[in-house]
Amino acid sequence: MATKLSVNINKIATLRNSRGGNNPDLVKVALDCEAFGAEGITVHPRPDERHIRYQDVYDLKAAISTEFNIEGNCREQKFVDLVLANKPAQVTLVPDAEGQITSNHGWDTGKHRDYLREMVSVFQGAGIRVSIFVDPVVEMIQGAAETGTDRIELYTEAYAHNYYESREKAVLPYAAAARRAHELGLGLNAGHDLDLHNLRFFAQQVPGLLEVSIGHALICDAIYLGLENTIQQYLHQLRESAY
Ligand SMILES: CC(=O)[C@@H](O)[C@H](O)COP(=O)(O)O
Ligand SMILES: NCC(=O)COP(=O)(O)O
């Protein structure tokens, strides 16, 4: 089975917002991603709406036909309401601090276990699959399992950062985290700073990876390679490492 590719289109919204009009058209880009082979669309609305706007989520939900994954901070009631109103295939809970440039850590699932358990049940009660964003630390995977979540998403920034120094060493905590997740019956996603260079090795070394969400690097690659060709190349990396 090959890992699914969900394209994160935050950066398309960043470009659109820079001029105030509707160019590029976010919904059209999402539909194009799907037509070019993407198996899901990911967005991460942030409270300042600096890229994805809350209205975008409604517009995308009405248009797309692949798996819709909404990421964000469930401590914001506006985010919870948005997700419940749109019922995506998956919500990914990310512990964003205020003013963060991008996501930079996973949940402390031990400290926040009761809170997360409550949020997981709110979303699952609405028929939405839940994934919890975590660092590749075995105790955090254990804590996630105790919340009743369906999946975890491994935060891959450290892997991407350390890839060129020693990819074998960089991937070790992720492979161990994946094995623990499987033992605990958790589905496994991953994302953040994955790119055309580091993706295949990650997917080969991390067993049972169900889905990756990739945005920043993929949209940058599309400037040079074109969106269709870029998506095909990412899919090729994943299919080469099918499990
Ligand atoms: C959870 C995660 O790793 C990504 O969603 C990342 O946070 C992208 O968000 P930005 O596009 O705002 O950097
Ligand atoms: N969940 C990770 C994601 O959606 C995209 O992260 P990035 O590729 O923009 O770093």
UniProtKB/TrEMBL annotation:
UniProt record, GO biological process: pyridoxine biosynthetic process
Annotated positions binding 1-deoxy-D-xylulose 5-phosphate: R46, H51, T102
Catalytic residues (UniProt): H44, E71, H192
GO molecular function terms attached to this record: pyridoxine 5'-phosphate synthase activity
GO cellular component: cytosol
Transition state stabilizer (site feature) positions: E153
Catalytic activity field: 3-amino-2-oxopropyl phosphate + 1-deoxy-D-xylulose 5-phosphate = pyridoxine 5'-phosphate + phosphate + 2 H2O + H(+)
Keywords: Cytoplasm, Pyridoxine biosynthesis, Transferase
InterPro entries registered for this protein in UniProt: Aldolase_TIM (IPR013785), PyrdxlP_synth_PdxJ (IPR004569), Pyridoxine-5'_phos_synth (IPR036130)
Lineage: superkingdom: Bacteria
Protein residues bound to 3-amino-2-oxopropyl phosphate: N8, R19, D193, G215, H216
Localization annotation: Cytoplasm
EC number: 2.6.99.2
Pathway: Cofactor biosynthesis; pyridoxine 5'-phosphate biosynthesis; pyridoxine 5'-phosphate from D-erythrose 4-phosphate: step 5/5
Assembly notes: Homooctamer; tetramer of dimers.
Role noted for this protein: Catalyzes the complicated ring closure reaction between the two acyclic compounds 1-deoxy-D-xylulose-5-phosphate (DXP) and 3-amino-2-oxopropyl phosphate (1-amino-acetone-3-phosphate or AAP) to form pyridoxine 5'-phosphate (PNP) and inorganic phosphate.
Homology family: Belongs to the PNP synthase family.
Protein name, per record: Pyridoxine 5'-phosphate synthase
UniProt lineage: Bacteria, Pseudomonadati, Bacteroidota, Sphingobacteriia, Sphingobacteriales
